[in-house]
Amino acid sequence: MKKLSVLFAAVMMVVSVGMAKAQKIATLDVIGVLNAMPEKKKADTDLKAFLDAKQAEIKKKADAGQAKLKQYTEEAPKKTAEENKAREAELGKMQEEIQQMNEKAQKDFAAKQEAAYEPIEKKLNDAVSKVAKANGYEYVMDANSSAFLFRSGPDATPAVKKELGIQ
Question: The pTM is what?
């Protein structure tokens, strides 16, 4: 059984190498290109500012809740059971509000991130398509992929960066 699986792996390797030689394949440093795009840098800055603002808002609410918890804990022995129960409910409601704010901030961030990156991805994909057609590449693969065991052949990264007008 072990020999059969080794034989199968060897056959698949030979077949895939044969197919790769028959087709023109290029690699592309997608992360490098994206990080060099000014649009991505601006989107990252805007998203960080948005996230920082949301986190500050949540922290302010959480700090207010902590202060109230401390105050209520100190005053609890002097209050009636009914008052303490009402205060407990109020703290529970505050905690729930903070959780909801957190969830809403995550959803808002994801939506804003998607909206910000969509045109950037489209621009990159258009440039890759244009470069691939111009150079006759049938496949352009991400050079950062861990699926590569061996990498050879043309690198489309410089051509895509040139198409995008970045260094």
Answer: 0.70
